[in-house]
Amino acid sequence: MTAKSIQQFLAAAKAAVQRGLKSTSGKILLVTGNESADLDSFSSSVVFAYLTDLHAQYTRCKLSGYDNIIPILNIPREEVSLRPELHFVLARLRIPESDIICKDEFLSSIDRSKTDKVDVVLLDHNNLLSDLGDLFGKNVVAILDHHADEGLNNSAEPRIIVPVESCTSLVVNYFADYFRISPEELSVSNEKKDVARLALAPILVDTANLKSKETQEDKDAVAMLMKIISSGILGASDGQESYYVELMTAKRSIDSFGLRDILRKDYKEWLEDNGVRAGISSSVKSLAWTVKKFGWNEFKKGIESWATERKLDAFVFMDSFQDPKEGYRRDLLIAVCSEKGDARVRKFVDAAQIEFELEPFSDEDGLGIQNNDEEGLWCFKQHNLKASRKQVAPLIRQFMQE
């Protein structure tokens, strides 16, 4: 019997949600990435859910006995439009956007009084936050993640937290029995090639096509995936490069976005036990590009408005981009958003300047970008290019927790 395709799996999961899961008598396995809902969170959760559904073939996955396995995008439906790289991948794989299940759609389909019916797998994070955490925080049964280990959900099995560049690499290596093909296999099904293309996308993006900060696990995953994709095709390396270029072109297509959309597109937030709240927005466009588009004063007003909307005490704006002259670069903006956050943020600024090799921003283009110690707003060029949000977030949280 031919296994269902990943397109068929997603369509069936969406149909189950649309019918409503309230009347389901059996257990539900919810598979979710983190709240930034980037390509890595999406791909890792969908691929993990799909291969768990095929668990009979891949004995390493011990999760079984579920009536429904539901991968979700951990954002409301209205925010899907802010992810052009996701739209590109969905179109490439012939997956209708309507078959993707968003957080609000899943929550509307379940009986919230029967949370014990839902087990949770965390991909690309190891602490279930916000409304999902309130409902199912004690129901985490498996974790694959590459962020700082928060020491929670220690009974999860598997519980794999390894600092690779892409969480999807962990999924590929975990299900290596599926992705590893032998030299004797002369052809690979189109269904398996589609799974490989979905898994490959975030790994290429997160490692800059294995040219920046990849780990051995990332390299191993790409090698397995490209062997599947290039089966029977000449010029495999060319295909990898062109796929990466297309992905990055799509990801950078945010010229039509308003400032609020840019700030919320790739955003993560943490509320500490002491009530201090910090948020980090990441952008694929430079700080100079953003300020040039909106103006320095409007940019500052936009940050203040976002901080008010999210009730933040501290805010960080990060970017990563290719400069025509200097190559790959990063900037870092840090802002105090409340009296409660003031002293904590200033300590973070002092530590971050050393840890991330920060240089005060020089407004070479005359855009009006200014550091203001009195206001609590600082802009830096970041010379430690390997420090992404995975490194910045634990440090700012350390000071927010004081």
- The CATH class label of the largest domain is Alpha Beta
H and E order: HEHEHHEHEEHHHHHHEEHHEEHEEH
In total, the number of strands is 11
Return residue spans where pLDDT drops below 50 for at least 5 consecutive residues.
none
Counted by DSSP, the helix tally is 15
CATH superfamily of the largest domain: inorganic pyrophosphatase (n-terminal core)
Strand content: 15-25%
| Gross morphology | globular
Give the biggest sheet.
Answer: 6 strands, mixed
Give the fraction of residues assigned to helices.
40-55%
| SSE-based structural type | alpha/beta
Spatial order of the strands forming the largest sheet: 6-7-8-9-11-10
- Rg over CA atoms, rounded to whole Å, is 21 Å
Q: Whole-Å distance between the termini?
A: 58 Å
| Assembly classification | single chain
CATH architecture of the largest domain: Alpha-Beta Complex
Number of structurally distinct domains = 2
Structure characteristics:
single chain; 402 residues; alpha/beta; inorganic pyrophosphatase (n-terminal core); Diaminopimelate Epimerase, Chain A, domain 1; 2 domains; six-stranded mixed sheet; five-stranded parallel sheet; 16% strand; globular
What would your notes on this structure say?
The protein folds into 2 domains: 6-248, inorganic pyrophosphatase (n-terminal core); 259-401, Roll (Diaminopimelate Epimerase, Chain A, domain 1). The mean pLDDT is 92. The chain starts with 5 loop residues before the first helix and ends with a helix. Helix 3 (84-92) packs antiparallel against helix 10 and helix 6 runs antiparallel to helix 8. A hairpin with a 5-residue loop joins strand 6 and strand 7. With 402 residues, the chain is of the alpha/beta class. It is globular, with a radius of gyration of 21 Å. The chain has helices at 6-19, 39-53, 84-92, 103-109, 130-136, 167-174, 176-179, 190-206, 216-229, 236-251, 259-265, 287-294, 296-310, 339-355, 389-400, and strands at residues 28-32, 68-72, 118-123, 140-145, 159-161, 267-271, 277-283, 314-323, 327-336, 358-360, 377-382. The protein has 15 helices and 11 strands.
